[in-house]
Amino acid sequence: MTIERMAHTPSRIARARASRHAGALRILAPRRGATLVELIVAMVLLSIGLFSVVGSSGSVVKQLGGGRNQTVAASIAQARLDSLTSIGCQSLTPGGATTSGTSTSRSIKETWTVIDGFNVKNIRITMTVPGRNVPIIYETIIPCRD
């Protein structure tokens, strides 16, 4: 072999190094797609998130329904207060007696009591709302001017 030809042909050591590096490059090369284990882990995480959203939506719906009932109870109590304050004090509690009443509207039970005070009338309205353990109580004082 001539010297020129030896310069162009790689030696056995150089070929071994090149093949070792090519194998290392093949291992480190980026792969395409996802493995089955990665897909299963992703599906489990996604289903946990989905179930938590579905579980919390039930409590949100329940709270919205309770809020609606409390709003209805407040408007019924306001209507009762308006009707009781439009009546004069002498007619509201004749002879200093206690006046009371009960009614039910839209499945909400309303109990009201008017107590005679010194130049004032104390009004207490108790609203029993379905789905709520504790009743809602509204109290006010009406000054007597008649």
How would you describe the overall organization of this protein?
By secondary structure, this protein is of the alpha+beta class. It has a domain at 63-146: Pantoate--beta-alanine Ligase, Chain: A,domain 2 (2-Layer Sandwich), CATH 3.30.1300. The chain has helices at 3-8, 12-28, 36-85, 89-92, and strands at residues 99-105, 108-116, 120-128, 136-143. A four-stranded antiparallel beta sheet has the order 1-2-3-4, with helices on one face. The longest helix is centred in the middle third of the chain and has 50 residues, at 36-85. The model has no long low-confidence stretch (mean pLDDT 81).
- At the fold tier of CATH, the topology name of the domain at 63-146 is Pantoate--beta-alanine Ligase, Chain: A,domain 2
Corresponding CATH architecture of the domain at 63-146: 2-Layer Sandwich
Summarize model confidence as the mean pLDDT.
81
Shape: rod-shaped
| SSE series | HHHHEEEE
Q: What count of helical segments does DSSP give?
A: 4
Structural class: alpha+beta
